[in-house]
Amino acid sequence: MQLPVLNSESSGAAKSGCSSHSCGSTDDQLGHLPEHIRQKVHNHPCYSEQAHHYFARMHVAVAPACNIQCNYCNRKYDCANESRPGVVSEVLSPDQAVKKVMAVAATIPQMTVLGIAGPGDPLANPERTFDTFRQLSEKAPDIKLCVSTNGLTLPDCVEELAKHNIDHVTITINCVDPDVGAKIYPWIFWNNRRIRGREAAEILIAQQQKGLEMLAERGILVKVNSVMIPGVNDEHLAEVSRIVKAKGAFLHNVMPLIAEAEHGTYYGVMGQRGPTHEELQKLQDQCAGDMNMMRHCRQCRADAVGLLGEDRGQEFTLDKIEAMDIDYEAAMVKRAEVHAQIARELEIKQAAKDAKQQLVAIEGLKAKGPATRPVLMAVATKGGGVINEHFGHAGEFLVYEASSEGVRFIGHRKTTPYCEGGDTCGDGESALDQSLRVLQGCEVVLCSKIGYEPWGPLEAAGITPNGEHAMEAIEDAVAAVYEEMRSAGKLAESAAVQKAA
Amino acid sequence: MAFEIIESCVNCYACEPLCPNQAIYAASPHFLIAAEKCTECIGDYMDAQCASICPIEGAIIDEMGVALNAPGSLTGIPPELLAKIDQQGTAAVL
Ligand code: SF4
Ligand code: SF4
């Protein structure tokens, strides 16, 4: 049940702000896209929240070199901001990468998307990247290919990209103003020289914008990622969103800066902070009027192999794949069967959801009362759209906002599972403290079970633990709890301030 | 007249294809420059190509042992702070 009142009424209306395309689950967010784009991103584990649970993607580390420096990156380690494996990860040759991808695809038929994102910039390693793509387009045509880039050499690569089975290109664009860029990029390598400061940012921005336009002209899907850096580009990103959309990007994904001193990055050691959940959400809301956001993006581990939350990378080490004998023709037949089966399942789920939504919409209309204030609730789930995770086992919480207008998905917040955290994690913060911090702003946490110990601290922090909706559909449970809060008079305080639309 | 790659190299491959003399080669535990082939790019480029793309301060040195990219010159982190982190770990900046 998303948007019980709004969904059925406003979908046709050309309204900005919290209109139908930016609310609800990500499936609904994609709902307003043109059909040919929906076809492409449908069942894509990175774009469809639902497909995320059924299909998998993998990355191969074939591109070690980079041609720019970002202040949030330290080439010695995995990049926390752009799901990029570090240079210390095992770099594969194109032949090894192709073998690995085919081994994984044959073993895990749900694997449908192969990405090249690093460890450096894929387009700064054009031979290695394109050799991998060329071989895979030929040998495994049922795998979608995607690539991430900083955009510096993108215009030179568009022609070549267009030749392969490229599903979409992701460009990281953190600014469109060179003065902002000078605070993010200390240097670029360009025309055989290292160029610094504003001049460097100017070239990078021009190349990114040109590359974006060229891809859009050829009908290749472009997603834009931005890292939100408070005090540097936070106020600027709404402008970025407008411009990249005007030039043809189909999705703009704003991610929070992750900067810790121990990463050894410029931002990390200089004490640049990342945004709070509230700041990130506010910016995502600001941009949502212009652009679809990808709130379920988890900045997933780039080198993980398998379905959501699992990593089967150990089954596919170089020596193991060397020993495998893969009949990809046979594998493709099996893969097609599995894909069809999943598609049927998803269809049935969607039909059930639609039927339910209509019922709720009618009820919602009946229940119209004075507007109530919105409430954030956190949910512990293993996936499948139901509340099925213990509070203590949750490595992340899904945050939903309930308001008189309905229930909408806001984003993910990661934490250290309380039961595994031990006494400390990292900088001496206990796992429970960390959970309390990531739950900041939420008034309720829904989980399948919760121990006695965290109960008190949660309540003291103004967060009501709730284990009464175990195994229920998330949106229904959130709506039910909101309804309870309304009946108990907990939502009235700012009713006078809120105006009914 | 030749430059040298030393142990702080992270094996990122960036320098290797740029060398006009094919002097750079992958080796273990890190990339190396064949001294007899390296011309310091004189006659080919204004700036030594390997040192112009290398992201690691101190990974490439000249014959005097001087880093072509000095501490702090690529990341912008003040050298004093880098020295402190080297000695005391990241606790120094917390
Ligand atoms: S200085 Fe120039 S010639 Fe010498 S190794 Fe570096 S790129 Fe090659
Ligand atoms: S660019 Fe620097 S870090 Fe990368 S391989 Fe060459 S010497 Fe090593």
TrEMBL record, chain A:
Residues 52-301 form the Radical SAM core domain. The keyword Phosphoprotein does not apply. InterPro entries: Aldolase_TIM, Di-Nase_FeMo-co_biosynth, DiNase_FeMo-co_biosyn_sf, MoaA_NifB_PqqE_Fe-S-bd_CS, Nase_CF_NifB, NifB_C, rSAM, rSAM_sf. It comes from the Bacteria. PROSITE patterns: MOAA_NIFB_PQQE (PS01305), RADICAL_SAM (PS51918). The lineage of its organism: Bacteria, Pseudomonadati, Pseudomonadota, Betaproteobacteria, Nitrosomonadales. Its cofactor is [4Fe-4S] cluster. It comes from Parasulfuritortus cantonensis. The keyword Iron-sulfur applies. Keywords: 4Fe-4S, Iron, Iron-sulfur, Lyase, Metal-binding, Nitrogen fixation, S-adenosyl-L-methionine. Residues 1-20 are annotated as: Disordered. Pfam families: Nitro_FeMo-Co, Radical_SAM. Pathway: Cofactor biosynthesis; Fe-Mo cofactor biosynthesis. The gene is nifB. This is FeMo cofactor biosynthesis protein NifB. Involved in the biosynthesis of the iron-molybdenum cofactor (FeMo-co or M-cluster) found in the dinitrogenase enzyme of the nitrogenase complex in nitrogen-fixing microorganisms. NifB catalyzes the crucial step of radical SAM-dependent carbide insertion that occurs concomitant with the insertion of a 9th sulfur and the rearrangement/coupling of two [4Fe-4S] clusters into a [8Fe-9S-C] cluster, the precursor to the M-cluster. GO terms for molecular function: 4 iron, 4 sulfur cluster binding; lyase activity; metal ion binding. Belongs to the radical SAM superfamily. NifB family.
Automatic annotation (TrEMBL), chain B:
GO terms for molecular function: iron-sulfur cluster binding; metal ion binding. The lineage of its organism: Bacteria, Pseudomonadati, Pseudomonadota, Betaproteobacteria, Nitrosomonadales. This is Ferredoxin. Signal peptide: none annotated. The keyword Iron-sulfur applies. SUPFAM superfamilies: 4Fe-4S ferredoxins. Residues 1-29 form the 4Fe-4S ferredoxin-type domain. Keywords: Iron, Iron-sulfur, Metal-binding.
